[in-house]
Design a protein that fits this description.
Layout (H helix, E strand, L loop, with lengths): L1 E6 L5 E2 L2 E2 L19 E8 L3 H9 L11 H9 L21 E2 L6 H4 L2 H10 E11 L13 E9 L9 E9 L5 E11 L5 E15 L2 E8 L2 E7 L3 E6 L11 E2 L16 E11 L6 H11 L2 H10 L3
Antiparallel strand pairs: 1-13, 2-3, 4-5, 4-7, 6-15, 7-8, 8-9, 9-13, 9-14, 10-11, 10-12, 10-15
Helix pairs in contact: 4-5, 5-6
Length: 309
Amino acid sequence: MRTLIVISSATAVLAACASPWLEQVVALPEETLPTSGFSSLALIPTDNPSFAYRALSERVPAVLSVWSTDETAVRDTCDAREPRGNNGKESPAVVLVPSANQYVLWRPALADAKVEEAMQRYARVTVQDARRPFYGDPERRNFEPAWRCFRFTRFVNRDDDAPAFDFVGQLRLGDSGDYVQVRPLRLYVAPGAERHLAIGLRLEAVWRQGNVGKMEIVFEPVLLAMRLKSGVEELHYFLDKYWEHYPILPVIPVSMDARGRLVQTAPATVTVTAVEFRKPDQAKEALLRTARSAGDHLGALIAAALTAH
């Protein structure tokens, strides 16, 4: 893992008092988990290098606007190429359009007042999703994913020029076509409070089998867990880890008609979740116990964040 750390400082105001997150925290409906800012999730297509370039280069932090071999490698991995004039696929519309974060209700916390209080006091959860077909043209002999990379960003304010959090990951279909792998490529985090972070991805597929509709969560791995320092701008690259270091995941189902013939695949919903924890003090053990026994994706992310080094 290649890491660049730049020391700086930042302050912000939460209502009438200082925010421990150094950002404004959004008022939430009762019992949902704390969040802040606005976020976006872009699924980067495999067949449009110009669009891929825009998806990776729009509204980037200043440290990423400077040429580097690592950032060039990220763009090459995602087959992103700077457009050379209008090739017919260009659009004036922006790629990154931040929207309000989704509200998250984690029911295991509601059963324990101490855990619920600790989640409200020490946690921040950012969730955003996007939807598009997983596979490209179903008429092709060999299936290929319709998108290869994704960019997940969080902005303090909707119209900010650069995000406070910027994560790029990559997905691939195994050589045999019967498994999927997902890995992190790059993470940028603006200065903030000392905290522990975990990032996960969930893919929910919808397809048909004959005249019967199907829907299920195909996989939901934890992609990354690490500790972030206080008041530090951090930039991490993960290009030096080979695919063999990452688990293999189930392949996404395809739709078939009543005669067993392949038909156009329905969209898959991809959800990326970031869990951040400030030091929960004496509540850590109760949080870990609840998270590990929950048996769900958010519980796995909470446990990963709390135990990250």
